């Protein structure tokens, strides 16, 4: 059965990769560092990215590294995920549909020693991907076309640790390496052969570190209820990185091209981030929670070409606020080893979530679109004869981005992830005991 699911996922990933371009088609990805990616895993996405107060020993929760201290002592957790989406763009009476897909993440977690869990993996940070054009008609015989396109993004590879120094209180840290490149271009052409073609190519390159800290406090509220409060802090700092602009003027009639290049060193910064959330669990079957996150972008200058000069400009970015609520319900939390339809339904996790987020960038001087999204998902257990308990996480999400006089986006997204829960350390412990018995 496991091989069947693995082959199915690989086939689904291959199909999406062939038929799609990148993780987004949004024209809003041309602003700032691009569209901010959800750095959550498969089980979080069923709750729309909720997770600051969640502690699971069988799921990797990178949203709060303090959660790693809950790692099961006998298993090794692997989690991989991908997504596919269809987006409808509406501007005035014009509507356009686009589809794309992306490999999302690959993470792992294990317990290194009592009260200390370790995690590592690769997760997305931003995505850039768009292509559109505008036509301006000056007269019946003269018109111009302005073409916009962009691609790229940033990724993060990290190593994290979560430690529980005293019962009920955990701290953790993710130490990451953030890297990536983006390219955005604007090209102006006309239908007259004597006119020049003008183009600007904006490119960025980033290589830097990223540090995120977390804490969780867990308290029993009776025999059946447990409350977990979680908090996170992301270190804001200069990323360095280079922003480059190449202006090109092409005389198509005489086949003459001239260009000039402007470069800004130390062009980018990471914002300081704060997060606070809770999760309340009743009878090990129902968990409800809420998260609030804040990203301080407003004090960051960003590269812009204005007044014939490429320079860092203030006031292009906004502080970002996000609020998320969600729940996770499993009808029965008891252990099971035999596979049946009844067991499958009663041991499946059912998840729901919703969130509201403000934009971190401005569009032509006004705030960008706000985002409202809802999601639903399932965590389907996969049990084999060895007692390994893997989980197939499937979720769907609808997200709407809108603002006055701007493009409205409606996105339907499918997230697919599988968590491999392998009893490596249990098998190793059993083998070691057999060696000791054989040696007398």
Description:
The chain is mostly beta strands. Helices cover 10% and strands 62% of the residues. The protein contains 4 helices and 21 strands. It has helices spanning 2-19, 42-45, 341-346, 424-438; strands at 35-36, 76-91, 94-113, 116-139, 142-166, 169-190, 197-220, 225-234, 237-251, 256-270, 272-282, 286-296, 302-306, 309-313, 320-329, 349-357, 362-363, 366-367, 370-383, 389-402, 408-422. The strands form 3 sheets. It has a 14-stranded antiparallel barrel with strand order 2-3-4-5-6-7-8-11-12-15-16-19-20-21. Strands 13-14 form a two-stranded antiparallel ribbon. A hairpin with a 4-residue loop joins strand 9 and strand 10. The protein is elongated. The two termini are 39 Å apart. Residues 1-21 have low confidence and may be disordered.
């Amino acid at each position: 059965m496991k091989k069947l699911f693995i082959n199915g996922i690989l086939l689904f990933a291959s199909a999406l990769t062939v038929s799609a371009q990148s993780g987004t088609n949004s024209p809003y990805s041309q602003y700032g560092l691009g569209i901010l990616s959800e750095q959550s895993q498969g089980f979080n996405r069923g709750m729309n990215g909720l997770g600051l107060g969640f502690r699971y020993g069988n799921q990797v929760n990178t949203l709060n590294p303090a959660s790693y201290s809950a790692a099961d002592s006998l298993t090794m957790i692997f989690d991989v995920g991908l997504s596919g989406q269809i987006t409808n763009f509406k501007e005035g009476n014009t509507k356009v549909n686009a589809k794309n897909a992306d490999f999302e993440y690959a993470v792992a977690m294990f317990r290194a020693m009592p009260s200390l869990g370790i995690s590592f993996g690769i997760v997305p940070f931003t995505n850039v991907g768009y292509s559109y054009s505008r036509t301006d008609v000056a007269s019946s015989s003269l018109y111009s076309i302005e073409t916009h396109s962009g691609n790229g993004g940033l990724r993060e590879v990290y190593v994290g640790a979560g430690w529980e120094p005293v019962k009920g209180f955990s701290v953790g840290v993710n130490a990451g390496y953030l890297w990536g490149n983006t390219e955005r271009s604007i090209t102006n052409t006309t239908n007259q052969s004597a006119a020049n073609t003008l183009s600007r190519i904006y490119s960025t390159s980033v290589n830097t570190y990223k540090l995120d800290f977390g804490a969780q406090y867990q308290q029993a509220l009776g025999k059946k209820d447990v409350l977990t409060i979680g908090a996170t802090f992301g270190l804001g700092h200069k990323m360095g990185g280079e922003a480059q602009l190449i202006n090109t003027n092409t005389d198509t009639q005489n086949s003459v091209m001239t260009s000039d290049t402007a470069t800004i060193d130390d062009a980018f910064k990471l914002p300081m981030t704060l997060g606070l959330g809770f999760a309340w669990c009743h009878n090990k079957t129902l968990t409800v929670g809420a998260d609030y996150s804040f990203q301080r972008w407003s004090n960051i200058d960003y590269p812009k070409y204005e007044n014939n000069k490429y320079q860092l400009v203030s006031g292009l970015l906004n502080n970002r606020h996000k609020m998320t609520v969600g729940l996770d319900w499993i009808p029965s939390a008891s252990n099971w080893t035999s596979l049946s339809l009844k067991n499958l339904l009663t041991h499946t996790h059912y998840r729901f979530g919703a969130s509201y987020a403000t934009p971190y960038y401005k569009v032509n001087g006004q705030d960008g679109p706000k985002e409202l999204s809802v999601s639903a998902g399932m965590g389907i257990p996969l049990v084999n004869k060895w007692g390994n308990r893997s989980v197939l996480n499937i979720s769907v999400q609808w997200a709407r981005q809108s603002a006055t006089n701007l493009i409205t986006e409606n996105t339907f997204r499918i997230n697919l992830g599988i968590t491999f829960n392998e009893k490596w350390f249990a098998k190793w412990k059993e083998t070691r005991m057999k060696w000791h018995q054989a040696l007398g």
